Amino acid sequence: MSTPPPTGPLVTRDTVFAQLRTLGVQPGETLLVHSSLSALGWVCGGAVAVVQGLLDALGPDGTLVVPTQTGHLSDPAVWSRPPVPREWWGTIRATMPAYDPLVTPSLGVGVIPETVRRWPGALRSAHPQTSFAAVGARAAEVVAGHATDCRLGEHSPLARLETMGARVLLLGTGYDTCTSFHLAEYRIPSPLVRVGRPGPDGWEVVTEVSITSDRFDELGHDFERDRAVIRATVGAARARLFPVADAVAYAQRWLGLHRPRDE
């Protein structure tokens, strides 16, 4: 049986560049990108071509930022997809390699962020579970000072991106991927949680703000209805562009009203 041809559209580095510029991405800006390669269509060159197109659109003075999360560096007691036998937990905790920003691969955020993580000159923040990688003129400023007990709060790249006037690009993904909404969780009453993970000196447990993407799709719907979100397509992907600061401010009000978690 022959393999059917791809349905397209055919997307190239130049396609990404041109359509991002049409969307409104500006040379010299700082852009936090959440992405899905498969949503774009048939991309000639895959993730590498997409990253090249993003960097072309941002120019030499711009900065590309992506989430490079490593949620697998966590307590096996809370794993569910799949769970592991209870009798394995002790060995896993004792032998799991600690986070190394240079070598630990990202997981669950897609191939484009992993490609950025390995890009020449890329820098990565220090949190062992919710790091960000950045390439470009302000990369060091973005990733510096990510506290290891602050996943996505005031001492994370998200707060710095807000201050810098960065924008978010959702490239083929929904609002459930919008990490900027999590910064708002740190600014409203939220429960705390104990988080286990491998550390440089062995297994460690830290206290963090409890974060969840529950109802972010509803939050995003209302945000897009009420605020100026630029929408277009890149390849076959739906793209949305908006300021980090707008997303955080709106989420802070919305979550406090529609999803209180101060119990």
Which term fits the overall shape? globular
Strand order of the largest sheet: 5-6-4-2-7-11-10
- Report the end-to-end length measured between terminal Cα atoms: 58 Å
Mean pLDDT: 96
What is the helical fraction, as a range of percent? 25-40%
Question: How many DSSP E strands?
Answer: 11
Characterize the largest beta sheet: strand count, sense, and whether it forms a barrel: 7 strands, mixed
- Stretches where pLDDT is under 50 for at least 5 consecutive residues are none
Percent of residues in β-strands: 15-25%
**Rg measurement, Å:** 19 Å
Structural class: alpha/beta
Q: Total helix count?
A: 9
What is the ordering of alpha helices and beta strands?
EHEEHEHHEEHHEHEEHEEH
Structure summarized in a few sentences:
32% of the residues lie in helices and 21% in strands. The protein has 9 helices and 11 strands. The protein has helices at 13-23, 46-58, 89-95, 111-117, 139-143, 157-164, 180-185, 216-226, 244-258, and strands at residues 10-11, 30-35, 42-43, 63-67, 123-124, 132-136, 167-171, 192-199, 202-209, 230-234, 237-243.
